[in-house]
């Protein structure tokens, strides 16, 4: 609990001068109007696309290699291959 008197805010006398219009400062960094600003995550999206393409190509290469090895043992991994061989 406060034990002293409350402070009373005083008003300035009318003879006291106040600061006139303050000048507003411009932005710290001025940018060109026609300069494109890319979002921050554009770089990350590009890297993600490259990684995705690389994984797809590696997976396709591995799959083709496995299919070749399986066909050497006369085993087909798909039913379509069997149907084509029977027709010819």
TrEMBL record:
Residues 1-25 have a biased composition (Basic residues). The lineage of its organism: Eukaryota, Metazoa, Ecdysozoa, Arthropoda, Hexapoda. InterPro entries: UPF0390. Residues 1-38 are annotated as: Disordered. It comes from Vespula pensylvanica. This is Leydig cell tumor 10 kDa protein homolog. Belongs to the UPF0390 family. It comes from the Eukaryota.
